[in-house]
Write a structure and sequence with these properties.
The complex is a heterotrimer.
Chain A: H1 3-21, H2 46-57, H3 74-85
Helix pairs in contact in A: 1-3
Chain B: H1 2-18, E1 27-28, E2 35-37, E3 43-46, H2 59-72, H3 80-83, H4 87-100, E4 104-108, H5 111-116, E5 128-132, H6 137-144, E6 149-153, H7 158-167, E7 174-179, H8 191-200, E8 204-208, H9 223-226, E9 235-239, E10 250-254, H10 256-265, H11 267-270, H12 277-292, H13 295-314, E11 325-331, H14 333-345, E12 348-349, E13 351-353, E14 363-368, H15 375-391
Parallel strand pairs in B: 3-12, 5-6, 5-7, 7-8, 8-9
Antiparallel strand pairs in B: 2-3, 4-10, 9-10, 11-14, 13-14
Chain C: H1 3-20, E1 29-30, E2 37-41, E3 48-53, H2 66-79, H3 87-90, E4 92-93, H4 94-107, E5 111-115, H5 118-129, E6 135-139, H6 144-151, E7 156-160, H7 165-174, E8 181-186, H8 198-207, E9 211-215, H9 230-233, E10 242-246, E11 257-261, H10 263-272, H11 274-277, H12 284-299, H13 302-321, E12 332-338, H14 340-352, E13 355-356, E14 358-360, E15 370-375, H15 382-399, H16 406-413
Helix pairs in contact in C: 2-12, 4-12, 5-6, 5-10, 7-8, 13-15
The chains are: A mainly alpha, B alpha/beta, C alpha/beta.
Bound molecules: pyridoxal-5'-phosphate (PLP) (2 copies).
One pyridoxal-5'-phosphate (PLP) sits between chains B (110-112, 115, 136, 138, 179, 183, 208, 210-211, 239, 241, 250) and C (86, 278-280).
Amino acid sequence: MEENNLNEMKELIRNYVIKEYIDDDDTTITYETPLISSGYVDSFSMVSLLVFLENKFKIKIPPSKATPEAFDSVNNIVALVNQYLNK
Amino acid sequence: MYNQYQDYLRTQINEIKEAGLYKHERVIVSPQGAEITLDTGQKVLNFCANNYLGLSANAKLVEAARNALDTHGYGMSSVRFICGTGDLHKELEHKLAEFFGTEDTILYAACFDANGGVFEPLLTSEDAIISDALNHASIIDGVRLCKAQRYRYENADMEDLETQLQQAQEQRFRLVVTDGVFSMDGNVAPLDRIYELANKYDAMVMVDESHSAGVVGETGRGVTELYNLKGKIEIITGTLGKAFGGAIGGFTTGKREIIEMLRQRSRPYLFSNSIPPLVAAAGIKMVEMMTETNELQDKLHFNTKYFMEKMSKAGFDIKPTQSAICAVMLYDAKMSQEMATRLLREGIYVTGFYYPVVPKGKARIRVQLSAAHDQEHLDRAIAAFAKVGKELGILKQ
Amino acid sequence: MSYSEKTRDLYLSQLADIRNGGIFKEERFIHSSQAADIEVEFPSGSDLKKVINMCSNNYLGLSSHPDVIKAAHEGLESRGYGMSSVRFICGTQDIHRELENKVTEFLGTEDTILFPSCMDANAGVFEAILTSEDIMISDRLVHASIIDGMRLCSAQHDTFKHSSMEHLEEKLLLHSNKRLKLVITDGVFSMDGDTAKLDQMARLCEKYDALLLVDDSHATGFIGRTGRGTHELCNVMGRIDIITTTFGKALGGASGGCVSGRKEIVEMCRQKARPYLFSNTIAPVIVSGVLKVFDILSASTERRDKLEKNAAFWRKGLKDAGFILKEGNTPIVPVMLFNAKLSQDFSKELFNEGIYAIGFFFPVVPNGQARIRTQISAGHEIHHLEAALEKFIKVGKKLGILGLTKDQIIEKFGL
Ligand SMILES: Cc1ncc(COP(=O)(O)O)c(C=O)c1O
Ligand SMILES: Cc1ncc(COP(=O)(O)O)c(C=O)c1O
């Protein structure tokens, strides 16, 4: 994937995460910030992220792949999405 | 929304009824004991309570509870670590550790919660839980809440346990989990061999003594006493809701650091009310009574032996065991229900169990003995069993 | 046995981490009944100290009420101590049924089922009534026991931002294709003391065809004009499908909980909820006490009225003194300190002054939102509150935080 697209995707996902999960302005979320293991996103709330990704990128991620580890940072999520985008 | 859901639920409930699995509750209007009164007015002999030591309405226990009501009030209205820890809680924890020969104890609202909250704080996805297939529902739920790898072995099957232990060698820590006494068959877990295998394959052991504490072993210390393993088992869970008075409450007792970790991290301990002081007081009394004399334990052992021998002699198919649970095998589900109904008419209260509570074709009446039963109670029950057994053609005329 | 070296060391080092992180939970031993004035042994082994309790869930002051204790005595006499059985074998007494009916009447629902605790009620209810075709949509701040219940249920789950009705609506739309939707909230949130917007939630659930479950553990008995709970406060009695609550707080504080609501849902729980089927029922002596509690509450609203007055007095006093509080209208009054260590120091200073209140910090509350949570009771007299206020002000002055804004406190103590 081209550099541009990749960055765009990262930004898109980061923005969604901030809008959906982060309430206070003091928190900064980078591409590397652990989302689930550090408590920003609880594992229950992953569903909406999953649905968002599936709708946005027109992909289907099997439930077995939607693990807390795979969702733990924007970079991880991008890697996961790319696996299914290319299929 | 509710209308549509209501229809769905009604269908489900009907299905449960049609399958003959609908659970009805019999209403008791007297204290729990050998002889109880139902709301129909009928007086019956109770052979289906977990009242193994007959302490459910014991005068000394009641008195201890009453004294605590006066000195410590009714409720704590708090979880343990905010303002829900009384001196009585601490004392009971010490007393139970002494009783089981362990290092420390942590109390829970129920053994259901003790089992529900024991695994998650201690084990991670790097570890393994190796669990007997017939373990209690609360152990299963606790395991479901924990990320450790799960292995299952067939009930009390030591070959299978060994296989599973071999397969679990990759993991960091291994914990073998078993009920001390399995509540449906009344069989005692082969803890001696479990312990040997655990040593061989470098695993820890956890025993749920809910049906064995107060019952199994010469002095009622449970299966660890029976197999001479006092102080050697890492984790023991148990209930105050059966032999130990029967009100509510559960506990985990064992290695000091494990208990300390549970106090810091175990969710049912951190997020649910502590047991009321009167329950702690009665628990303390119970341990004292069991330590002072062995009368209740002896009587229970006598009753169990007596009942099982007589029933075998009468021709019933009995599973031999060292617990106080006597499974009278009938195999046929309908027969187990018919037998229980007729026995109730004779004034004997027992429960029939059938699939899915026990395997298909293994229906039975489960009789639970108690130190509250007098020999006359036992004789009446045995006579009633014989009478109904003949009527139903189970015993030869 | 692998315990000896490796395992012990692992747990020891984890415990050391907890200690070093300053989040080790230390228990304080209470030698008296639960009440406004209690006697505490802390640290373990020290002499008893008389303190005013400002952190129990004894909202109505019934935990050691003489009538409740008397009823418990009578229960012990007439019903014995324990049942030694689960409900459906031989663990049901007539008074269990009586209590279920009383709760139903009090909450204005259709039926009720008792559990050993509300933790168990929450642990059992979801799995009993939902399957993998369904979805649970919960407020992000619901109690740990609800979270465990949801973890045990195969239905999907999603969350909405705390009390955000727009976000909830988004989620209801997002999951509109699911067979059943269950929206889940606490009635009163225990750490912040705010109340759920049940009127709007009921409307949304009706609009989007969803069921609504409310955990009213911190409300039953005192929230709403006659203390029925958050659904009374929000004027939606009869429109909540499922209420779970506890007898372990305002209602005498001994133990026990329940699921109350639609008849078929309760019936389903009786058939399927695992903690109900596989754990002992509430002991008769406790049932007798709770029955008396309901008598007391049904006879007069005196206690909840007093609680309301006490809470208002307390809130105003702290505010006027210059503390930062979480806004709310319940007897849970959090004094915000933001810094975790400050919350611990504050609590210690208070204890030395004879006031018992606990500091909470991450992970119990979000990072940077440490606080002292005070809980007011109808068992408090004005003199208790005045004395506690004086000490709060004294400690506040000593630590130099009175009148400071959030930013100033953070600047001074760090986050
Ligand atoms: C909202 C909420 N639900 C449930 C519970 C648990 O209640 P119980 O103590 O009856 O298990 C609590 C108590 O901490 C609570 O705050
Ligand atoms: C083996 C076992 N463990 C745990 C329990 C639950 O005990 P409690 O009633 O204290 O929750 C039971 C009771 O049914 C049991 O048989």
